[in-house]
Amino acid sequence: MSEERFKKMIAVLIAVVTLIAAVLAQLETEAGDRDDRANRDSKRASVEAFGLQIRGNTQANYHYYTAFEQYREMETLSEAAAKRKDTKASDRYADMRDRLLDTSPLLAGKDRKGKPYFDSENEWEPDLARFEADSYYVKVQNLLQNFKAASRVKDGWDYKANSYIFHLTLLAVSLFLFGLAATIATAGTRVVFTLSGLGITAAAVMAAAQVYLLPVPDLRTRTGAIEHYAEGMGLVHQELRKESIAEFDQAIAAAPEFADAYLERGRAYLYLESPELAKALDDFKKALELDPSNASLYTEMAWCQYLLGDFEESIKTCQLGLQDRSDSLQLQFQLALNQLAGGKEKEARETYQKALEGAASSVAEAAKNKQEAPSEIIANLDEGSRMLDDLAKVIEDKKGLPAPDKLKGKVADVAKACEELSNLLVSYELSLESSGKPPEGKLTAKLEVTGFQDTSGKTPKDPSDDDVFKGAPAQITLNFDFEGLKEGQKVVYRTFKDGEELESWRWEETWTKDAAGSGSWEEPLYPEYSESFRFEPGDYYVEIFVDYHLAAYGNFKVEE
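Now predict its structure.
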């Protein structure tokens, strides 16, 4: 080939590559614009969700803890006045109570189906969860999914934009090589540069084509997917899990790649009154396939496998999750629970102890930085204790999940270990939260709850044979026998209603010299007793700690 003809060919190649570069530059600009738009959308959705969450929580707390509590206080005062036969005062309080109904949408409002949030004649308290779902929770879930969807779109277009820049760089190298080929006189060298330029150009074009064809899915374009998901989450918030499944079904039908919808539908199946564990596990596996980065999936899948009695698979799932989250107390406790149920008590105790040491270390680090104990650690300790209690109940009742016949080892030994370890976790929970340190020493005192009494009036009243108090008593007293309590020891009382601690009722006292040794003790459960206070209906559970070691516990029930 003559030199002139070669140069013409190179000129054509340079022109073609320049044209391709121009196209790629346009694609890069467009990808950058879409990246920016998605970034703005994600930030807007995030800010709106955060603001609505804060505003909604604040308003719901006001309507429940101010408006409703005032309503209930006026009702109690009216009843107290009626008992004193002060009719006028009772009527005034009742009138003030009824006027409060119109001051709050929680007390006077209705949902989209026209059902009141509070039926004052037939209900003890308003349906706060339904009110929250309607007023802000569903909207927040919608915004959060819009934020996640926009973030994924941003990441997709950001990847494309950066890829196109790399491809443009390759084309620039090709143009440089073609330029060298046109100026060098040696034929062999010109061929090498030309072929190198052609090879780099071909590689850049093919790579750019692959990036161009790579889809950037946008969940926001799947009509109804996010909306049905948010409605499903609103039903979950109301603990209407069975009803939520239909919403998640529609979300998945609209977007089969919707990982969060599979996760939440799996959770709904898992936490049904009669769990559908096989369906839950299938959904968790699908969600993990679609989004392996979702760490919470390992927790849910491991729990599902545990309930199925597949302890070895659950252990593997926990271990996989711990590879990325080695400090996860939740996964460590699930791992230990599986080891215990699977007949590996020694390994289970070692895992629990390691987890507790890690929790203590994290709390100590927080204290060093003048921070409170992380709430997540305290919550996980509480949940870990409850899981052990549930396993012990399965053994005691010889029914439940996991199926008793799936358990390995001697069930009596497993039950004993459950009680010991549960007490240990609860003791760590209180001690870390209160003192920032693990409980010191060992429990030497012996305490035994002997019962509860209604001490509202002059004469104490015992509950029914099944420990039930009726009529909303104003005061209930805990009675217990003790032995070995020493002067200066700290005694802490914790009271729970329907599984939730009444934190303002937590009471700590230092044992005095006069009471040291052995004897019987009476402790009112509500330290800030007032005439207007009444125990609300529910299941109550009381714990007694000595120097942050759980020493005794008991329970009772209040009915209307």
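The longest strand covers residues 549-559.
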